[in-house]
Design a protein that fits this description.
Part of the 30S ribosomal subunit. A hairpin with a 6-residue loop joins strand 2 and strand 3. The chain is 0% helix and 55% strand.
Length: 80
């Protein structure tokens, strides 16, 4: 089974080797038929501390590394 890959924006890089990434998803409300935006924060492992606040990045599912951290920073997302 392939690992999930999500794209989001780094909202915090204050922790060592960890970034907090806000991932937004959009869906149509089943009753109102209106587009709804929902966001969730994921803690991701950043081995070399390369990501900075505001960067658009890709994160991938990985093994649990701590209580909150089970995602790994893959790369900065391509521009465009």
């Amino acid at each position: 089974m392939p690992k999930r890959v999500l794209q989001g924006v780094v909202v915090s890089d204050k922790q060592d080797k960890t970034v907090v990434v806000k991932v937004e998803r959009r869906f149509t409300h089943p009753l109102l038929k209106k587009t709804v935006r929902r966001s969730k924060n994921f803690h991701a492992h950043d081995e070399n501390n390369v990501a900075k606040t505001g960067d658009v990045v890709l994160i991938e599912e990985g093994r649990p590394m701590s209580k909150l951290k089970s995602w790994v920073l893959v790369q900065e997302a391509p521009k465009g």
